[in-house]
Design a protein that fits this description.
This protein is of the alpha+beta class and about 70 residues long. Helix content is about 15%, strand content about 20%.
Length: about 70
């Protein structure tokens, strides 16, 4: 089974997926180390994703200590 198949199987086991649903899976571990200089997400960083005509999602990162 391919990785995408596994993701869809797990998500659809807990919620109904509809045509047009978006699934954000992120990037592989270690992507930040490939930048010059290396760059990693840290507490207070904000990641925004958007699609014209649909909208925007905004995620603010917190540290494990803030839980």
């Amino acid at each position: 089974m391919q990785a995408v198949d596994r993701v869809l199987e797990r998500i659809s086991a807990v919620c109904t997926l509809h045509p047009g649903d978006l699934i954000f899976t992120g990037t592989p571990a270690g992507v930040g180390m490939g930048r010059t200089p290396p760059r990693y997400l840290a507490a207070g960083d904000v990641v925004r994703t958007s699609i014209d005509g649909i909208g925007e999602m905004r995620h603010v990162f917190v540290s494990n200590d803030a839980r």
